[in-house]
TrEMBL record:
Keywords: Coiled coil
Protein name: (African queen) hypothetical protein
InterPro entries the UniProt entry points to: FAM107
One Pfam match: DUF1151
Originating organism: Danaus chrysippus (African queen)
Amino acid sequence: MLICFRGKNVLNQKSELQKALSKHKEKQLMNQIQQHRETPELERAIAERARRLEQAEQSTEEFEAGTNPTLQQVRARLRHAAPTPSPAASAH
């Protein structure tokens, strides 16, 4: 039996592109871990709640701004259309 050994490095057979991709993924993972450590869970929860409250306020303001002119017009029409009580009618 003759065993032939080739001069291949079986431990490091990645191409340059694969090496660059693995380095890039490793950097992204490290950045995510670092960002996670920088903002504790409580702070993230508070920030998320503040963002949701802000969005709710904005949507409420947009709704009120959209219906407010119409509401004012209807009220103005009702004021002009409604008869004003006369002083003689209130005396009875």
